[in-house]
Amino acid sequence: MIISVAQFQLFVLSATRTLAILSGVPVLGSAAVPVRVRLAAGLLITLVIVPLVPRATAGEPMLVGGYLVLVAMELLTGLLAGFVVRTTFAALSIGANLIGTLAGFSAAQFVNPLTNMQGSPLDQLILLFSTTVFLIVNGHHQLIVAIARLFELVPLGTFIMGAGVKEGLVRLTLGMWLSGVQIALPIVATILAVDVAMGLLAKTAPQIQVFFLSLPLKIAIGLLGVTALLPLLLPVLHNMFNDTARHMLELVQAQ
């Protein structure tokens, strides 16, 4: 089998988009996964998907200047699609950080190898839990299907960074923060109520060491709240992961 220059160029464009999308997935895009594994996974997915989708580019070899522009366009397309996947996990991280800061878990910080970012133990727990649920509900399978669908809806070389994409980015960012706050709201409200109660206790009984009393109390409430929150997160995460593919297609298609 002989591969022409045009076919090789199309494959590189497709691989650029696919690898950029996978960079937003904590499982495959994390620093803990070797670069060779990430590259092999992206190329394998590209080999499976590319023969099944239409192409908008011509069958003749492209000049270097125009081809580099197309590569940059596909890189941007993939990064935007991967951003949608990342916002889902970022919303959970925001909620966990709110709980951890108020409950006192933020004093212990370490780097998570999955995201190569610093966070509290509670943040890492929520991220590992959500990643496990992502794999259990076959979120990675839905992501591969969405990538193939993306090639159909937005063929190679046709993406335009229009006003619809910019508005979609703003909506996704706002939704990310709103979802994070909503996830953490019950526990945060309980901890704030404890702070108010400790403030009143300090006024009525100044001899009581409120700080040493409130710190373990807030930690205990945080742990109990997270224990009760994790089972309730299962249907929420399922719905979020199901909507991720749809939001990804809507964002890139909204030109």
Overview features:
two-stranded antiparallel sheet, mainly alpha, single chain, 8 helices, 76% helix, 255 residues, elongated, 2% strand
Describe this structure in words.
The model has no long low-confidence stretch (mean pLDDT 77). With 255 residues, the chain is mainly α. The longest helix has 44 residues, at 210-253. The protein has one domain (5-253). α6 packs parallel to α8. A hairpin with a 4-residue loop joins β1 (110-112) and β2. It is 76% helix and 2% strand.
Can you summarize this structure?
The protein is an all-alpha fold. 76% of the residues lie in helices and 2% in strands.
Sheet with most strands: strand arrangement: 1-2
What percent of residues adopt helix (DSSP H or I)?
A: over 70%
Uncertain runs: none
Q: Characterize the quaternary organization of these chains.
A: single chain
Question: Mean pLDDT across all residues, rounded?
Answer: 77
